[in-house]
Amino acid sequence: MLNYHEILATAMFRPINPHVPVVLWAIGQTYAPFAKIPDNEYYADPAKMLEAQVKFYERFPDVLTIPGIWPDLGLMAELGALGAELEFPDDAPPQSRGGAFEDIREVENWEVPDPKKADYTSQTLDYLKYFCKHLPEEPRKKWGFLDGHIFCGGPGEISGLLLGYDKFSYAMYDYPQLVHILLRKVTDFIKSYIDAQIEIVGEPKRVIIWDHIPGMLSRELFDEFIHPYMKEVFTHVEKATLRIYHNENNYPHLLDLMRDIPANVCHIGPKHDLVESKRVLKKCVMGNVHPIQELLLGTNEEIEAKCKTIIETAGRGGGLWLSTGGGMAPETPVEKMQVLIDCTKKYLPPSL
């Protein structure tokens, strides 16, 4: 298996190991069922959360996971801090029941909280301090977990969920200036939240930003409303070695615009053509085995065939991390994950 230095080199299109790395997107939806810890206990207790993540690491010690070992509270941190209504199911991650606004016009007088004091972001920061104190030394040294490690949502999706996707969509046409006010305030909050994380983990080295809303928008709407704010967030952490953008939605119509965003790895969805995406983005692509139709429901032989095709068509010259095209389904058995890992040992991309 590739070590962290070799995985970084592949992301920078300077592969020093001929094999394509496998990188698994693993969050609470994977960790909690893997460790057989109920969701309501996993998210409520940093000790159980860390225990589950370390158990997953111990099962796959030679595989890099993204976001990695991290106090992942789903959408709860950013949305809850900014006033969204949340619910805490017994058998699912925390989720939003409703936005923070009934009307876009409310954003003009909206005061954004300090993420270090607001509910939920302050909780995540406390969890992060716990993780930093109690994470075993081996995964910390091997993969750099928690060392300059930043994880948060992007301005488009957070704004869309605070207002509601339907209202947000109409407002881009009816109240464009108010949408910009909302995005401005959310972007400033995100940057402050990132800075609060930096105070705990140190200068950014590995940054993961999730924002799925671009795949729902036309080129014109994305270019006007989302692109400048997303670019600003990534520019805020542009000194980080890894700057990963996560979005499994379908956005081939935006690839040339996304090229301008200072991320250097794009975790993309299963509908994307990896070869074309890599060519246009000029960034490392992470994907794109379908997490449900192929990894969860496919046979081992079907998964292997898909991985072989990905490696042999998109792996030439680096710039490919084999993974699922989006997050893994909670029920995904570890045996299926192992198929991906075994394929990267068995198959090589064509040489240049």
Automatic annotation (TrEMBL):
Keyword Lyase: yes
EC number(s) given by UniProt: 4.1.1.37
Classification via CDD domains: URO-D_like (cd03465)
Keyword match DNA-binding: no
Leading EC class: lyase
Example of a GO MF term: uroporphyrinogen decarboxylase activity
Entry's Gene Ontology BP terms: porphyrin-containing compound biosynthetic process
Domain Uroporphyrinogen decarboxylase (URO-D): 19-347
InterPro entries in UniProt: Methanogen_methyltrans, UROD/MetE-like_sf, Uroporphyrinogen_deCOase
Protein name: Uroporphyrinogen decarboxylase
The species this protein was found in: Neomoorella thermoacetica
